[in-house]
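Hi V.,

You were right to ask for the full record rather than a summary. Here it is.
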Amino acid sequence: MTNRFKVGANFPPQATTVPALRAVWKEADALGVDSIWTWDHFFPLFGDPDATHFECWSLLAAMAVETEHAQFGALVTCQSYRNPDLLADMARTIDHLSGGRLILGLGAGWFERDYDEYGYEFGDAPSRLRGLRETLERVKARLPKLNPPPVGPLPILVGGGGEKVTLRLVAEHADMWNIIGSPEEIARKSAILDDWCAKVGRDPASIERTVMSMGVPDEATLEGYLGAGISHVIVAVNPPFDLAPVEELLALAKS
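Predicted structure:
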């Protein structure tokens, strides 16, 4: 039976241990998920602000060799934290470690504590979006210059729903788009993305549309997502990483 939609699982690297992360990646991969994700922050986003936390791209290198089947990536990499040309090289190298399964997720950045404590300039939303545009352009320019090139397709995912800038960047640069919201809001933003695709000469069907869900969506919400053009549903699974929601979503994908 062909799945109605792809299934992903997002495992935040906070309030946990590296052995626990390694175990849950392998278990999710064995269950047959289509994608495995973590986030790109330096501190917890909820709960104890001083709980344990691990860096994203170091974990992605480990995820590359701990899994065998699923695509994987950051949901999403903050454009501010790494030189874009270096990031392209990191992504290419990790893609090789995985045999060609990496997705390069990118976003403008928003968590001010990361910036303040690690010495990055927080700026404002427009400046961070300009940084995202520059990162996308530089990454795409660097990847063809790398020797050897990526093993896999190394799709670029852009996360966010800003209608004037972010969705235009999706239309111009991305292979995948990630959004959080209600089916109604996603349908509206998806239509705006279609409009941007028309303006820049892009086939809107060439962009895979993904949603982050904080739990397993109920039937009406799930059907709303699919009706809005979503083809890849990613469920957040927080520590201690009970995979029951992932198993439930996998069953729904086949129903």
